[in-house]
Amino acid sequence: MEFGSSNRGGGPWRAAAGIGAVVAALLIVPVAAQAEPVEQVAAGNYDYDGDGLDDVLARRDETGALELWPGDGAGGFRPRSTVGSGWGGMDLIETAGDLNGDGRADLLGRVASTGALNFYPGNGTGFDAPVRIGRGWEAMLTVVSGHDYDGDGNRDFLAVEAGTGTLWLYPGTGTGTHGRRTAIGSGFDRVRELTAIGDMDEDGHADIVAVRETDECMYFYGGPGSGGFEAPVLFDCGWDVLDSAASVGDFDGDGHADWLGRERASNLLYLFKGDGLGGYGSSPVVDTGWNTMTIA
User: What's the mean pLDDT when you consider all of the chain?
Assistant: First the structure.
């Protein structure tokens, strides 16, 4: 099975009819623009073994082992290795880009029993001892990271607060910590899957995509690079067939941001190959048996 191709201006990629209704459902609060550097597709976000190619991290749920699945630069994997143990106590594992500015990709993890959010500095072969970012993160439905959303050159966090549906921006400092948070959206409690996709439309700014649980439609939020997002655009619908999605940088080496999706019924893992226009060109199967894995 291959999912249909998509791009702006034709096919399943289309502007939502009645876009005002979409904005009301998932309100994006505009933020004043400022100068910003250009966002790079990969930018070291997903290279965990230092070979220059983007990789995938996943937890094997039955053992709690953290596995590195090295990318081969052409949309496939090289042999996996175990890079950590004891990750079964995490209810959130998220790729983080280079949070501390040392040139290596890092990881975020939330401890289920305490709600503490930890930062795991990458060392090129695994991860160093965790650094506590803070407690109280159990109040967040999801946390994503890995890209610069406010244009200061540092990797930021985005988090959706349970109960209120507020989308918060936690500006990164370049040292693995964050500054004072800012509310940049509301209504995101209706989102079941939020993915920090990188610069999907290649306008120089980091974007996000979100799947709403109410209609199983995916929406694209273009980042203006000033800390907020533009009005959502309907990507396409029928995403209930996937139960997990993760950004993987430029996984096939064509210069465009890609992402992985796991099909619920078959446990097949698909690579959605970005086309650089805000959509994707094809979605080949890259592996099977991922039903026991949590993708970072």
Answer: 85
